[in-house]
Amino acid sequence: MSTIEDPWPRLVPPEIVRGKVLILDLNGLLVRYCNQEEADASRVFGHQHVHLSTHSWYVPRVGLSAFLEAVRRDFTLIFWTSCVKRNADALLRDLEERSLIPARFLRSEPEIEVWTQAECTRYATTREGFRGGALYLKSFARLYDYNLVTRDVLLVDDSVKKNSTNSPFNAIHPRSYTPWTKEHAPHRDQFLCGTLLPWLQAWRQSTIPTPAYIRAYYRELGAQDPIEGLRSYWGDLVTPEPLSGLLFDDAILADRAIARSLFIGDVPAADVSVVVAGVDDPPVV
Ligand SMILES: [Mg+2]
After folding, report:
1. Per residue in 183-205, pLDDT tens?
2. Is Transcription regulation given among the entry's keywords (predicted)?
3. According to the model, what pLDDT value does residue 233 have?
4. Which runs of E-coded beta strand occur in the chain?
5. pLDDT digits over 129-142, tens only?
6. Domains of the chain by residue range
7. 28 Cα: distance to centroid of ligand 1 (angstroms)
């Protein structure tokens, strides 16, 4: 395989980035917003639940502070939530005041970006479950604005749909954090520090291109299959333009071809075989 050229050439010199870029969702991964009924049910399991505003509660996830302390050291860290900035600020301020995240976390150096709905790409949809008929997608086009264009980007988000414009293998999608279920009772839920953190540290040390790495190892996390998730959401809508144009629009470099061949099937397999070979036989970087 030595004749294979690196199919993921960097667009910018590596010195511009501060290492691998880790983008973390908030709700459903690090905390869970809930209504009063869910908050009460979470308390029964022994969770600390917080009353944030009139009709809004949240439950922080076990190990949150230790997890953030570790990833802050190892990655260029970005929080990206599709909620509005006012709500994200209120949540983060509350977490800090209660010492549920490390002290001065958001003001430490290098500063941690917080992206909200304003940084998302709005997609109008009439599908169920989206108030206001809009879906807010986390498009990696945003990375260009911050000189963070690199193949080493990973979004961790419980929603597969939010990654619809990027390569499906630039993200992992753990199952949503539901503190009112037995599965996520405090004494059982070791996901952040026991499962996700070691996985991220292994990814950080790997020289395998990120999309190939994710594709090979996302199952170890018990994460959702991104192609199945995207198919079940977009399914019948994907073939006619412009939707097939929208999907994976900002997929980094060669990933777009892989994504389209897997999901839409309009790129001949021969054109992406070199990329697929990278999973087992990574190009020298
Ligand atoms: Mg979420």
Report:
1. 999 999 999 999 999 999 999 98
2. no
3. 75
4. 21-24, 31-34, 50-53, 56-60, 76-80, 113-115, 121-124, 134-137, 153-156, 171-172
5. 555 567 888 988 78
6. 14-277
7. 4
